[in-house]
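[step 3/7] fold_predict: job queued, chain A
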Amino acid sequence: MRPPGRRCRVRDLGLKIGRFPTGRFNAITDVPRVLVGHSTIIRGSGALKPGSGPVRTGVTAILPNAHNVYLERVAGSGFVLNGAGELSGLTQVMEWGLIETPILLTNSLSVGTCSEALVNHMVQRYPGMGVKSDVVLPLVGECDDSWLNDIAGRHVRAEHVFQAIADAKSGPVLEGAVGGGTGMVTCDLKGGIGSSSRRVKTGEHTYTIGVLVMTNFGTLEDLRVDGIPAGRMLAERFAHLSRRRENYGSIIAVLATDAPLLPHHLQRLAKRVALGIGRTGSYAAHGSGEIVLAFSSANTIPRKNPKMLYRMKILLDDCMDPLYEAAIHASEEAILNALCMASDMTGVDDHFVPALPLGAVAEMIARRDAALKGA
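[step 4/7] structure written:
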C-alpha cells in the first residue's frame, strides 16, 4: 500500500473492485490504438474578474483510432441517463453508429471553441474535407467548472485543443485535476479525469474494456466507495466548508473496447456505465448531465470502399454479460481514481475544494475488509 500522504490511485489504498483483472495501465489506453492527451490551464487567484480569472480549466482529447479515425472510422453509440449536459455530435453517432473524429472534453462554455478548433485541425490534416469528401461533426463533451473557474472568460483557446491532440499518447493516463477535469468537483471533493480498464475472457477470446471519465457530479453525503458510505463518514470533517449549491453536475464517460461490437451492443454497454456511475453515489439529479459515449476499435470502417461491401467480426449477444460487468466496475473505479488522484484546489473567490482524504478512506476499506473476513 502506498503511503496515504501521497496522491495515488484507489487500488493503492487496498481496494480491488470487481473480479476481472485490469489491463497493463488500468486505463482506457489499454485498448489498442486509443490515445489520450491533455492541455491544462491554471492561472491567477483571488476574486473573480470575468475575462481575467482565476482560471482552472482545460481540454482532454481521446483519439479512438490513433490519428486515423476520419479515414478509418470506428463503431460507436451512446446513452444519456440525464440530459442536463451536452456531448455535441452525439446525435449523428446514434444515427450512423460511427465515430469519425477525436473526442474532446472541456467546460460548458468552451464547447464551441473546441468544436471549431477540432474542425480546423481536421481540415488541415485532410484538406479535401468539405470539398472532395464529407464534413464532420466534432464530438465535444462538457461539464460546468464555474465553482473554481472563470468559465465566462472562455480561456480555452484553439492552441489548447491542438496541444491536447498533439499530446495524445498510449500508456498511463494523467488523472485528477488535469485537462478538461482541472476545475471539476465530485461529491464536494476535488474531481476531474479518471480512468480504468478490465480484461475479460468471453468464449475463446479475451477483450479489453476501458473507461475514461470527466467527473463533476454529486454531494458529499452520497459518495460511496465500493459500497462503503464514505461521504457520510467524512461529512463532519468537512462541515465547515462552503459548497456549490446551484451548479451541480455532471459526468461525461467514454468507454472503449477492442471487442467486435455493433452500435446496438455499444449502446447496451453504455447503459452499464451508468450503473457504475450510480455505484459511486450519483442519482442523476435534475441539474446533472450523465452522458456516456462508447466505441469499439475492433472493426474500422473505411470512409471510401469501391466495393460498397464490408465484412465485420461480431461478438454474439450471448457473450456480452462479462463485458457488462466489466463496464460497471471499470466506470466505478475510473471515478474513484479521479477523486484519489486530485489534490486540494482553490479557485475563483477563494472557493476551496478539498481532496478526498486518502488515509481516512484506506482505513475505511481496511476496517470493512477485516469485518468481512471475521464474519
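[step 5/7] annotate
The helical segments are 90-96, 111-125, 158-167, 230-234, 263-279, 321-341, 358-374.
The longest strand covers residues 289-302.
exit 0
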